[in-house]
Amino acid sequence: MHEYLLFSLGVLPLLVMILLILKIKMPIHQAVLITLLLTLVEATIFWHTPALTLGSAMAYGVIKGLWPIVIVILGAIFSYNLMLQTRGMEVLKNLLAGISDDKRIQVLLISWCFGGFLEAAAGYGTAVAIPIGILIALGFKPLKAAIASLVANTVPTAFGAVGIPVSILAEQVNLPVTELSGTVIAQLALFTLLLPFVIVAIIGDGFKAIRGVFGISLVCGIATLLPQYFVAIHLGAELPAFAGSLVSLLVVALMAKKRQKPTPAAYRIDNDQCRITGHYSSGQIFKACAIYLLIFVFILLCSPLFPEIKSLLTQVSSKPVFPLAKWGGAEFDH
């Protein structure tokens, strides 16, 4: 069969799913089921895939959906609710708000840096929802806060939710995860450097807003990119987003604190209700950050930096076997 026809058939289920969700506004679970049926029909008719292989593929997809994706979603919901119940989110919001009264710097700190960390630790919407809420509480216009946070969350999603997208891709294409992680970051490098300027322009009603914060915006992108790439090529997909967001957060916060220029009135945060009036002790700050710090520490302990722990976990892991039938003259074990 002609390769272009095969390509078109392969892309068709994805296009149908997008059409059903975005154009027809069909509920996602219904759109996914229709897409699955279309995929099964195509695989049977055009690729002559055996029923055993199709069944194994579906079972594999279900298990992959439950572990690790659903597990990470549950963890993200739990950590977010815990932050709300303990008022840790309020502490973090006030700490970030107290760094600068400049909206342009605040959007870098909250949407880009803190949002990037949330994407690394939890993902699945938290990295957009939480920054939007904080920005609105600080007096930002809701629409601008939403657009800026959505744009800021484009690049981090490649390594979101503990690097699941790249880890699963490396597994499927049988490539070293460190090599693939480095390649992904290199492909996104230009966007990583440019997007801080874009979100500043969104908040500031145009690229004229970059004047006065050009240096801090440039350093923000660089401080995200370099740690991400270094960690990716040495440790894999789980930690690059953590490294980039934490380093950029520290660097931008330090630059903002040492900044001597007065904030122009057009970009000054004037919402008195969001100004910091109290002081938080080290213990309060630690408690507020504890859940995300624990996530980071556990992931770090399971990384190649600690081969003994990684080896121990590998010994107790299990891999289900999915039998595949003879297909196209070759036999696949699992």
Question: Please, could you describe this protein's structure?
Answer:
The protein has 334 residues and is mainly α. It folds into two domains: 13-49; 65-307, no CATH class. It is built from 14 helices and no strands. Helix 1 runs antiparallel to helix 2, helix 4 (88-97) packs across helix 13 and helix 5 (103-121) crosses helix 8 (160-173). The two termini are 27 Å apart. The relative contact order is 0.11.
Mean pLDDT, to the nearest integer, reads 87
Q: How large is the count of helical segments?
A: 14
What is the number of independent domains? Answer: 2
Q: What percent of the residues sit in helical stretches (DSSP H or I)?
A: over 70%
Low-confidence stretches: 328-334
Order of helices and strands: HHHHHHHHHHHHHH
Beta-strand proportion: under 5%
How many E strands? 0
Q: Rg, please?
A: 23 Å
**Shape label:** globular
- What class would the helix/strand composition place it in? mainly alpha
Largest sheet: none
Subcellular location: Cell inner membrane; Cell membrane
Family: Belongs to the lactate permease family.
Main location: membrane
GO molecular function: lactate transmembrane transporter activity; solute:proton symporter activity
